[in-house]
Amino acid sequence: MAEFTDADLRGSRFERVDLSGAQLSTVDLSGARFRGADLSGVTMRGVDLVGVDIHGEIENLTINGVDVGPLVEAELDRRHPDRARMRPTDAASFREAWDILERLWGETVERAGRLRPELLHESVDGEWSFIETLRHLVFATDSWVRRAILGDPLPWDPLDLPWDEMPDLPGVPRDRAARPSLDAVLALRRDRMSTVRQVIEGLTDESLDAHTAPVEGPGWPEPRSYPVRKCLLIVLNEEWQHRLYAVRDLAILEAREAG
């Protein structure tokens, strides 16, 4: 166990480091950036939390004795009336959720298409570019629908883009240097969205509650059986969240181009 006392670690970079159970006392974390970090079970006392921006899966977060999770969820549902539809419970409501996502993504892609092509490869505040976002959603579909549900052990296209923190896995591409055109990525995306549509159209309440056949071979997700419901909920969440990120960044790119 390492111990740092009166140490100056400003600007340090920690990547794939296990800090579980660490004790931080009288520590300056101002300006720190956390990405892909597991903060489950963290306890903070006597902290100054001012001007903080948090995006992620938030449950059972208590601030000054108040569980703010339900408040955040209620406000997000108010801001985005379609958001509640992303928590479907039966086959019919899964089809409704996918209808909504197809409509929203159609509007977002049309908006992106009005920008200069080079801006679609531009990162905003270190986040994925619009093209990279679409490539990641292809990866999500390939992983959770084509691999987990349909049983293809190697479903990936060379343009698939896993999340940055995922360890390299045999057979899973990760080409961050690729610069495909919007049309090329959209052709791939349409194919994968059509696959999801076919799976969801064929859903019944019984098949939704079933488990997939065990996935074979290395890759993501790990080779085992999964609840069909879980696989599709993951896809819906990926589609919903990444569209919000894309819309947020498109607004910045549009303002940048206009200025």
Outline the low-pLDDT stretches.
none
Order of helices and strands: EEHHHHHH
Rg estimate, integer Å? 20 Å
Shape: globular
At the first level of CATH, what is the class of the domain at 88-258? Mainly Alpha
Largest sheet: 2 strands, antiparallel
First-to-last CA distance: 52 Å
Q: What is the third-level CATH name, the topology of the domain at 88-258?
A: Four Helix Bundle (Hemerythrin (Met), subunit A)
- Total strand count, please? 2
Return the average pLDDT rounded to an integer: 94
* Relative helix content: 40-55%
Counting H and I runs of at least 4 residues, what is the number of helices? 6
> Which range does the strand content fall in?
under 5%
Q: Tell me the CATH architecture of the domain at 88-258.
A: Up-down Bundle
Going by CATH, what is the homologous superfamily of the domain at 88-258?
dinb family like domain
Strand order of the largest sheet: 1-2
Task: Note down, in words, how this protein is organized.
It comes from Micromonospora chersina. Residues 101-245 form the DinB-like domain. This is Pentapeptide repeat-containing protein. The mean pLDDT is 94. The termini are far apart. α3 (130-147) packs parallel to α4 and α3 packs antiparallel against α6 (228-258). The protein has a two-stranded antiparallel ribbon with strand order 1-2. The relative contact order is 0.13. A hairpin with a 2-residue loop joins β1 and β2. The protein has 259 residues and is mainly α. The protein has a domain at 88-258: dinb family like domain (Four Helix Bundle (Hemerythrin (Met), subunit A)), CATH 1.20.120.450. Helices cover 41% and strands 2% of the residues. It contains six helices and two strands; from the N terminus they run ββαααααα.
